[in-house]
Amino acid sequence: MKTISSGLALASLVGTSLAGAIYTLDECVRGEGFYDSFNFENITDPTHGRVTYVNRTTAECLNLTYATSDTFILRADDTTVLKVNDSGRNSVRIRSNQWYYEHVVVFDIQHMPEGCGTWPAIWETKESDWPASGEIDILEGANNVVPNQSTLHTSHNCSMPNNTLQSGSFITTNCDASVAYNAGCGVQLTEDKNSFGPNFNKNGGGWYAMERTLHYIRVWFWERDDPFVPYEIRSGAWIVNTDTWGIPAANFPNSTECDIQSHFGANNIIINLTFCGDWAGNAANYNASGCPLDCVTYVNDNPSAFTNAYFQISSMNIYK
Ligand SMILES: *[C@@H]1O[C@H](CO)[C@@H](O)[C@H](O)[C@H]1NC(C)=O
Ligand SMILES: *[C@@H]1O[C@H](CO)[C@@H](O)[C@H](O)[C@H]1NC(C)=O
Ligand SMILES: *[C@@H]1O[C@H](CO)[C@@H](O)[C@H](O)[C@H]1NC(C)=O
Ligand SMILES: *[C@@H]1O[C@H](CO)[C@@H](O)[C@H](O)[C@H]1NC(C)=O
Ligand SMILES: *[C@@H]1O[C@H](CO)[C@@H](O)[C@H](O)[C@H]1NC(C)=O
Ligand SMILES: *[C@@H]1O[C@H](CO)[C@@H](O)[C@H](O)[C@H]1NC(C)=O
Ligand SMILES: *[C@@H]1O[C@H](CO)[C@@H](O)[C@H](O)[C@H]1NC(C)=O
Ligand SMILES: *[C@@H]1O[C@H](CO)[C@@H](O)[C@H](O)[C@H]1NC(C)=O
Ligand SMILES: *[C@@H]1O[C@H](CO)[C@@H](O)[C@H](O)[C@H]1NC(C)=O
Ligand SMILES: *[C@@H]1O[C@H](CO)[C@@H](O)[C@H](O)[C@H]1NC(C)=O
């Protein structure tokens, strides 16, 4: 890991009047650095997936994680036919060692898991007091298709107005995790066809960025060859100015309907890949996606269907 101390000299140059929009690089996690910055969570999937989250030793031994200086791969087993009573397909779930409050995070992603039954996610939360410290799902979806979205899940008394400046569209506006079976307030990334699944991968991926302040939480996506990707994103610059990033894909404002400060606390970053479970394996969702059989049978019997069930991430930059 290269933890780069945020340049005080640079910060003072830009002054304080633009504070909130200008950030300096605080942590640059690249390739092998993911091993230092994240812990392997060897736990039972709380969302009841058809998965076994292995520990680091096993992951490296089975090549379920693999890193070079500029790439980190996280994937599921794609060779084992599972018996009904096996515990689930081997996969990996990692959680950051650091805690984050107000920050910007930029992921440079080449590939995300695809395939029927897959449910990949990059998100932030504090697991031990969920949902008191909030949950921000930056990138999440299931079964390749529906719904590619960014979602907040919170404690009571947080909902979003459906008139925010964003390119995506709210499919639900109540963020309260106790409402509507924890649907959360979700924005579907409707504008860009290459932000998820097979299309994302064919296109060489792209960049997901999230900015969390006391005034709003915003998510942006730029596909790999987007001519409008800010140069500071493409180059992994020392300083970024989120005011120049254009209209976000998802925009969750602070308001009288949701006091962001009291609904979001210290969060970890989590990257996980599960199968089936509460979302992907829900029979109605699974069938609607056009996937064959039932989810668990499909995942048990077809290891080769998961050859492309992997994340390939170059870097994760944190700005503060
Ligand atoms: C932990 O990982 C090992 C393999 O590394 C696996 O056999 C075991 O089932 C996992 N434990 C849990 C709770 O998933
Ligand atoms: C990882 O899991 C394997 C298989 O269950 C076990 O043999 C090994 O001791 C575990 N390693 C750690 C560090 O927990
Ligand atoms: C592990 O995976 C990487 C990336 O897919 C691959 O290049 C490498 O050859 C694999 N190593 C083994 C021992 O299979
Ligand atoms: C699976 O486990 C159940 C309960 O322990 C047992 O009754 C059943 O025979 C097992 N099935 C197979 C195929 O091993
Ligand atoms: C990861 O786990 C969390 C809860 O533990 C869940 O909310 C999230 O949806 C899961 N996603 C995946 C892809 O496993
Ligand atoms: C929000 O507004 C958009 C555009 O008018 C509409 O398509 C969508 O259904 C609305 N969402 C909710 C949750 O009301
Ligand atoms: C996201 O899902 C919606 C609804 O299924 C779909 O119309 C849209 O094309 C999807 N976008 C991407 C990037 O896959
Ligand atoms: C809900 O939040 C608002 C501030 O956003 C606060 O004024 C109000 O008292 C809260 N209501 C409850 C029931 O907690
Ligand atoms: C968030 O909105 C509430 C309600 O308007 C307000 O009381 C609070 O001061 C706002 N928070 C910030 C940090 O501006
Ligand atoms: C989904 O499809 C499976 C297998 O084709 C079928 O058994 C099940 O009833 C369907 N469930 C729903 C909710 O449509």
From TrEMBL:
Residues 16-288 form the GH16 domain. GO terms for molecular function: hydrolase activity, hydrolyzing O-glycosyl compounds. Residues 1-19 form the signal peptide. SUPFAM superfamilies: Concanavalin A-like lectins/glucanases. GO terms for biological process: glucan catabolic process. Keywords: Hydrolase, Signal. This is Glycoside hydrolase family 16 protein. It comes from Suillus luteus UH-Slu-Lm8-n1.
